[in-house]
């Protein structure tokens, strides 16, 4: 069994995924998808632990000691997934007290957890400060006051919304008007907010410029910008920075024509970035963090649904499955996409079959929004056959409106070394 080199007809990004094909079967974690779901039932998310570990190790190697990796828990908050990255050496980047609890449950030390998010509530701040937290990434004047009111010492960074020329990513969060952090151009007005503050130890800066960045040059130019910004901030503060958090946003290919982020190019740029930090005495010894989510968890996951019925309406073939946007909003194009494009989709028990049909894949919800793929090239399918959406390990189950229409939640299953386990929230 060798990693697949199947052509485009098996889904645009299949060649970029980590899975093997054995005759007709898509294989994950050493097991045929068909055999796993015969026991777990469908719909389900299957997560290949080795593929996720491989993504972590590839990134760690590319970074060559330049930055520590903190897994962004929002990508997939199951404690078993956080724990897997923790075993590899990752810290955790969280955005709520629920994610804090999941990270603690997964065994992450409180000192290796960092907390960002534009609307942190007083009760959340209290719980993480009392339980222990590496850093809080402050995003508003009110947050400063809320933390001060708790009256316990805590380390913090300022979250900065970078100026437009540093922006990148298909779904941009930085560079434009946003609720995330303070605008870079306001930095000199923001730092005085920390004067006379007794409990917050302002040690660093956090910049998150956008998600789904596939262009290594763009990522590196964003990181350079952040290092220079950190140096300016350190000068204004008149002290060295302990932390520079460069954000996440490393992309993965989903759609036809997209290629994976070139980690060799990232790696080649690391000596220059290290040198850039050394040029300024106040950033020379800072601890650098990157906090990817999608890049680590996305490629190792697939979403599997069973076909319920196949019908034709006015010339279009509709394949109705037992899964849909209530489990996988992102694949339906309703999470951050402007133009709906298909995630890579395959028939995991018919990998050798000819792709002789074009069909629209829909779920069981009573809305046309519940469309998983349009005009997808697929083998001839019938009720009882399986479909699998690839690149589904990040922003899947936890980013979907599972309550809508009250269908059951999808099972989530971790597969490793020829064995699988249902992992729950
Ligand atoms: C502050 C912050 N860090 C990290 C991430 C993870 O981003 P990605 O999954 O694109 O790496 C996000 C995503 O929204 C974020 O808002």
Helicity range:
25-40%
Number of strands: 24
Beta-strand percentage range: 25-35%
What small-molecule ligands were found?
A: pyridoxal-5'-phosphate
- Please summarize the sheet with the most strands: 9 strands, mixed
Gap between N and C termini = 33 Å
- Principal-axis shape: elongated
Keywords: Pyridoxal phosphate
Domain Orn/DAP/Arg decarboxylase 2 C-terminal: 299-393
Cofactor: pyridoxal 5'-phosphate
Domain Orn/DAP/Arg decarboxylase 2 N-terminal: 52-297
Q: How would you characterize the overall build of this protein?
A:
By secondary structure, the protein is an alpha/beta fold. Helix content is 25%, strand content 26%. Strands 5, 17, 18, 19, 20, 21, 22, 23 and 24 form a nine-stranded mixed sheet that branches. An eight-stranded parallel barrel has the order 6-7-8-9-10-13-15-16, surrounded by five helices. Bound molecules: pyridoxal-5'-phosphate (PLP). The site of pyridoxal-5'-phosphate (PLP) has 16 residues, from helix 10. The site of pyridoxal-5'-phosphate has 16 residues, from helix 10.
């Amino acid at each position: 069994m060798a990693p697949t080199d199947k052509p485009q007809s098996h889904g645009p990004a299949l060649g970029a995924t980590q899975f093997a094909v054995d005759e007709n079967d898509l294989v994950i974690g050493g097991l045929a998808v068909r055999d796993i779901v015969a026991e777990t039932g469908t719909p389900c998310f299957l997560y290949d632990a080795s593929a996720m570990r491989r993504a972590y190790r590839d990134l760690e190697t590319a970074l060559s000691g330049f930055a520590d990796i903190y897994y962004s828990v929002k990508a997939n908050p199951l404690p078993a997934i956080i724990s897997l990255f923790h075993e590899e050496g990752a810290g955790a980047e969280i955005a709520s007290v629920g994610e804090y609890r999941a990270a603690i449950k997964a065994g992450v030390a409180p000192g290796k957890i960092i907390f960002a998010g534009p609307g942190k509530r007083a009760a959340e701040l209290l719980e993480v400060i009392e339980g222990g937290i590496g850093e809080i990434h402050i995003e508003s004047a009110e947050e400063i006051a809320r933390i001060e009111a708790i009256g316990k010492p805590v380390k913090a960074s300022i979250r900065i919304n970078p100026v437009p020329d540093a922006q990148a990513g298909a779904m941009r969060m930085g560079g434009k008007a946003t609720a995330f952090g303070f605008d870079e151009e306001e930095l000199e007005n923001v730092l005085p907010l920390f004067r006379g503050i007794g409990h917050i130890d302002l040690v660093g800066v956090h910049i998150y410029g956008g998600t789904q960045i596939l262009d290594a040059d763009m990522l590196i130019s964003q990181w350079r910008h952040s290092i220079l910004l950190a140096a300016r901030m350190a000068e204004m503060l008149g002290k060295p920075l302990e932390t520079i958090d460069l954000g996440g946003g490393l992309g993965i290919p989903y759609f036809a024509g997209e290629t994976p982020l070139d980690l060799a190019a990232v790696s080649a740029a690391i000596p220059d970035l290290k040198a850039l930090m050394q040029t300024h005495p106040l950033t020379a010894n800072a601890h650098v963090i990157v906090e990817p989510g999608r890049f680590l968890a996305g490629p190792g996951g697939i979403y599997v649904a069973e076909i319920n019925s196949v019908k034709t309406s006015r010339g279009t073939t509709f394949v109705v499955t037992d899964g849909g946007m209530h489990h996988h909003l992102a694949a339906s194009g309703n999470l951050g996409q402007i133009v709906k494009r298909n995630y890579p989709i395959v028939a995991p028990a018919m990998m050798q079959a000819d792709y002789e049909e074009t069909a629209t894949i829909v779920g069981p919800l009573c809305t046309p929004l519940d469309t998983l793929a349009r005009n997808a090239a697929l083998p001839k399918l019938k009720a009882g056959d399986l479909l699998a959406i690839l690149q589904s390990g990040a922003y899947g189950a936890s980013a979907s409106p599972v309550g809508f229409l009250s269908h059951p939640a999808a099972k989530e299953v971790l597969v490793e070394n020829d064995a699988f386990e249902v992992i729950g929230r």
